[in-house]
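Appendix B. Chain record.
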Amino acid sequence: MSVRILALVGSLRAGSHNRQLAETAVKLAPEGVEIQIHEGLADIPFYNEDIDVEGSVPEAAARLRAATAAADALLLFSPEYNGTMPGVLKNAIDWLSRPYGVGAIGGKPVAVVGTAFGQYGGVWAHDDARKSVGIAGGTVVEDIKLAIPGSVTRFAEVHPENDAEVTGQLNDVLARLVKEAGAAKA
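Structure tokens predicted for this chain:
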């Protein structure tokens, strides 16, 4: 059985540690698992029902919805901005929650992980993302948690893929999410 996981990275910054973490997940994907990092979150306009009209949905939002519909699960990588998730990630969740009741995220297993500079690694942001994605219709896998603190210093000279502790934890995250995605497909 093959499993497709769509990764959404909440940081748009070049050299983002969350982007590096997502790229590491792609490299660690077990056989039969494809992880695709979605490109283009910065191109999606703020959610507005006036522009979310069948036949004229903005192209970037339509691509996100199509990629999500084709995935078996989602893996969100979130830093923490001012105590919560970045706006770009919240906006993606908003687009995926619509049309109401039949959004692309509906029923899909979703895990939220990431790294942040603070001592808790973005726990508040991850909790807010889980809450938002659950309300949007995703099936939050609550026991998948990975919040890596001190990103600026921890990854200053070491890429996440070369950090044995991080790769071990990320392997555990992937195994659990693949299991949930397989159960949802069955």
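Further analysis of this model is presented in Appendix C.
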